[in-house]
Hints:
Radius of gyration: 20 Å
Low-confidence stretches: 1-21, 33-43
Helix content: 25-40%
Number of strands: 8
Number of helices: 6
Distance between the termini: 39 Å
Shape: elongated
Amino acid sequence: MSARVFINLCEDPRARSAAGKGAWAEAKLLACGDEGLLPARGHGVQVTSTTTLQDSEGNIKLQWVKAEPKHDSVERYLEAMEKRVSSNIQPKEPVAAPSEELNESLLNMLNIGDMHFGMLVRPPFGDTESEWDIQTAHTAHVRAFRYLMQNAPPARRILINQMGDAVHFDNHLATTAKGTPMGPVAGFFEEALEAAIDAQKFIIDLALSKYQEVWLSVRPGNHDKIAGFATYLVLRERYRHEVEAGRLVLGDAKLEADFWQFGKCMFMCTHGDKYSPS
């Protein structure tokens, strides 16, 4: 696992505002301490299976242990996390709404699927010789979000559908909540969580400045069941004033899916791992 410190959240260093710096504090708040995310080891984890390699004399040479968080422990930590975030994250000042008349009959929709911050892809891939790491992924997403916002047709509303797996792994052991290893990874858990939170803040702030009403679905995925819910909590508290004013309509990450209706169209937003194609 890389030990390098994650810096330069945006390609323009001047864009790292006080709000951007706050993402690191939020990630540490969520990932550290007794009331943070699930502990890497110890209580709250149950062994589900073991595989043992023995030599001809029966001596244990190697052993694989598979473990996953206990369901009731996961729920208990999520409840504790919600209380912790609610009492520690301060809402930001509201973003000024656009004053011009916008198209009432059009709903723009931005689907963000599986960003996987923290995944490491070594070169070569595509047309680059660089590693795809946390900073590369963040820069690419920020550029894409800015391009989409600048080129989207004018509309009064937008639905931002963050479909889950924004973070590649769910704890300091670089595994999913079920214990599936995701290594090698691109950095520490806090770094990946920080980047995921900051990228979503970026697109939400842009959307609030361009649209009079923003609908937001933040789904935990199978890779980031806990980190995804943590991100939802941070965004809910950060944009509390926007939610209260009706400028931001936020789905419920505790549910398996969000449902939205616009005219005669219904949209279902979910990660999909809990639903069978049939």
